[in-house]
Amino acid sequence: MARFQSSHGRCLFCDLIQREIAAGERVVIRNHGYLAVCAEAPRQPYETWILPERHAVRFDALDDDQLHDQARVLHELLRRLQAASPGAAYNLLLHTGPFHAPEESLHWHWEL
């Protein structure tokens, strides 16, 4: 990601978000400033990412309203997963920047 940032002058995930919104093919949920999108090359069935539409490095920097909004999107995604595949096991990973990361170094996101 740092290499993409230095060669293109922008965040890889911000580019991904704009491309996915424009195409609309893999978008599962777009609501409250968050995007849930099926992975382009999934490593397992139903692999989905939740990303904030605006660039943000650290999950812990969210205010209460932002936490509530992303929780609503996560809850809806999990509800849909349960409807599509009842009882499915899954892992939920949070990718977030370190405490002293430069603003452009990462775009936090959930990976389901």
Strand content: 15-25%
At CATH level 2, the architecture is: 2-Layer Sandwich
Main sheet overview: 5 strands, antiparallel
The strands making up the biggest β-sheet line up spatially as 1-2-3-5-4
Total tally of structural domains: 1
CATH class: Alpha Beta
Query: Which structural class matches the secondary elements?
Result: alpha+beta
Primary descriptors:
single chain, 112 residues, alpha+beta, HIT family, subunit A, five-stranded antiparallel β-sheet, globular
Report on this model:
This protein has 112 residues and is an alpha+beta fold. The chain has a single domain, classed as 2-Layer Sandwich (HIT family, subunit A). 36% of the residues lie in helices and 19% in strands. The chain is built from 3 helices and 5 strands. It has a 5-stranded antiparallel β-sheet, with helices on both faces. A hairpin with a 2-residue loop joins strand 1 and strand 2. The chain is globular and about 40 Å long. It starts with a helix and ends with a strand. The relative contact order is 0.20.
